[in-house]
Amino acid sequence: MVGATMKGLYFQQSSTNEEITFLFQERENLPVTDDNFVKLQVKACALSPINTKLLAEMKMEKDFFPVGREVAGIVLDVGAKVSFFRPDDEVVGVLPLDSEDPGLCEVIQVHEHYLVHKPEKVSWTEAAGTIRDGVRACTALYYLSHLSPRKSVLIMDGASAFGTIAIQLAHHRGAKVISTACCLEDKQHLERIRPPVARVIDVSNGKGHVAESCLEETGGLGVDIVIDAGVRLYSKDDEPAVKFQLPHKHDIITLLGVGGHWVTTEENLQLDPPDSHCLFLKGATVAFLNDEVWNLSNVQQGKYLCILRDVMEKLSAGIFRPLLDEPIPLYEAKASMEVVQKNQERKKQVVQF
């Protein structure tokens, strides 16, 4: 039984907004008070870096921000107007940016429109650990680049948790997949994926020539779709060391084929007139992969729920096989979030209750 109070994980920003501190706070186990909310016993919560810059842009100013948004659990109670769920239902979802409750807590309240039913044979940790990366992959490949069979797809940093899911989705749709590896361990992981990746480009120590390799693999035609993991906008001397292994924006433009789609995670992408002219000559497009796009647009809620259900169906069918680390207990969540926030984890971290 859950007591009258319980601990939840929150973060607090410094006065300069440059550093954040994670801490546990006591909170009350309140009854459902809103008509469209469900009370959820959390069984697993996956960890992802917090976009503090976006929170500041959205004017979300709080003393303490809740931590943990990718949750799976059991419905304990429902509000008067909840129509999709009943007590004892097993559900999974992503909490909205403005959620008052942290996913890293035993019991929370969630609006029903952010949840879908969890398939019976999918584990709690798999559900929580796949939901967000699955949404990102579907958004990138279905909605931003219109993936279809026999297309060629370059997925940068394919051995990451997101990259692994994106590769599996591209394979499922009959695409030819090329990927980059940042180290020997990543290269070995990509070579074990089945069906196999068409080509693994080793970019460790800056030795991989991404554009040349992609053009060679496609007979000089260029790839149809590129999903980057960030790009370099300037010369290596002018970029921070963390971007050393990333391709330059000119490399991406060079390797794009006619009518190609470049899906970028670089929110501050700068394209000079010659870059735009080259994209124009190829009839190519640039789209931005914003993790929060569905949460920022209420009119797309129905489409978002369809994506959540699709991700769970693919996970249940074995199409998605997430790259998960060993589950961790709640008391280790603070230390784990500090590591995740620095983007130092390759496998998805999931807290199991």
From TrEMBL:
Recorded superkingdom: Eukaryota
Domain Enoyl reductase (ER) span(s) in chain numbering: 15-351
Classification via PANTHER family: QUINONE OXIDOREDUCTASE-LIKE PROTEIN 1 (PTHR44461)
Protein name: Quinone oxidoreductase-like protein 1 isoform X1
Organism: Microtus ochrogaster (Prairie vole)
Lineage, opening ranks: Eukaryota, Metazoa, Chordata, Craniata, Vertebrata
